[in-house]
């Protein structure tokens, strides 16, 4: 799909579901350097949209601009039809958006339980927080076993699970997930991908996920988007990208 086609598709999804997050002609970068150019995409309700691309393609920059951690250089972002372009990240969190950065974004000196409590800071009702914490423990039983352990002493995979759990503590409707498998052993990558499926299908959360593990991430996505040097070069069904040769042509 061309960049023009992708822009037109930003108002719809392949499944025809309601669009919860729409990006139109977005540009982003750092200082005066533009990294992302005229990107459009649409994330449907209860959908997993996988974003692929080589290192430096602008994937993380795009997620940060969508979430309000980077200033857009043109274009717009809408959430449930409301313009949120450039809105502060804290406001996005209270409105049901979550962002899990790469590199296990946890508070290393605090316990697992304290990290989860901080993840739910927007919810003042302690009973609801307790319910959500138990839901995270059901999803990641190892965290329940280590609830009193300092987060910095957890393995990389356990820290990634905790970071995802923290995002779930404020019951988001959309999660922006940046390379959840980075630095993890193969068995832990499978566990994290299984969790993504559960979050999407059981909890009904729409997910925009950046991931380098094509083999494990393509099967769980309803749609895929490929970014190359900051621009969309493919937006469509994931099946054609399972052909390694065809995928490499886009990189």
TrEMBL record:
Cited SUPFAM superfamilies: P-loop containing nucleoside triphosphate hydrolases
Residue ranges constituting the ABC transporter domain according to the UniProt record: 21-250
Molecular function terms, GO-annotated: ATP binding; ATP hydrolysis activity; branched-chain amino acid transmembrane transporter activity
GO biological process: L-amino acid transport
InterPro entries to which the protein is assigned, alphabetical: AAA+_ATPase, ABC_transporter-like_ATP-bd, ABC_transporter-like_CS, BCAA_Transport_ATP-bd_LivF, P-loop_NTPase
Keyword annotations of the record: Amino-acid transport, ATP-binding, Nucleotide-binding, Transport
CDD domains for the chain: ABC_TM1139_LivF_branched
PANTHER family the record matches: HIGH-AFFINITY BRANCHED-CHAIN AMINO ACID TRANSPORT ATP-BINDING PROTEIN LIVF
Similarity section: Belongs to the ABC transporter superfamily.
Protein name: Branched-chain amino acid transport system ATP-binding protein
The species this protein was found in: Tistlia consotensis USBA 355
Lineage, top ranks: Bacteria, Pseudomonadati, Pseudomonadota, Alphaproteobacteria, Rhodospirillales
């Amino acid at each position: 799909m061309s960049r023009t086609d992708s822009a037109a598709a930003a108002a719809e999804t392949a499944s025809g579901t309601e669009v919860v997050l729409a990006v139109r002609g977005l540009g982003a970068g750092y200082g005066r350097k533009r990294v992302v150019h005229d990107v459009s995409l649409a994330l449907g309700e209860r959908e997993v949209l996988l974003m692929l691309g080589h290192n430096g393609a602008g994937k993380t920059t795009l997620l940060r601009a969508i979430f309000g951690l980077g200033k857009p250089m043109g274009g717009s972002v809408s959430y449930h039809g409301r313009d949120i372009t450039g809105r502060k990240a804290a406001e996005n969190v209270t409105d049901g958006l979550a962002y899990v950065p790469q590199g296990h974004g946890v508070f290393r000196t605090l316990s697992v339980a304290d990290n989860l409590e901080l993840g739910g800071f927007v919810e003042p009702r302690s009973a609801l927080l307790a319910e959500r914490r138990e839901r995270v423990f059901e999803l990641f039983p190892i965290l329940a076993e280590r609830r009193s352990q300092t987060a910095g002493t957890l393995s990389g995979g356990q820290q990634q699970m905790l970071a995802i759990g923290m995002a779930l503590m404020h019951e988001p409707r959309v999660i922006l997930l940046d390379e959840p498998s980075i630095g993890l052993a193969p068995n832990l990558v499978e566990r994290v991908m299984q969790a993504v499926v559960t979050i999407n299908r059981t909890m009904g959360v729409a997910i925009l996920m950046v991931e380098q593990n094509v083999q494990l991430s393509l099967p769980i996505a309803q749609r895929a988007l490929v970014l190359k040097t900051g621009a969309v070069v493919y937006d469509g069904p994931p099946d054609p990208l399972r052909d390694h040769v065809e995928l490499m042509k886009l990189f």
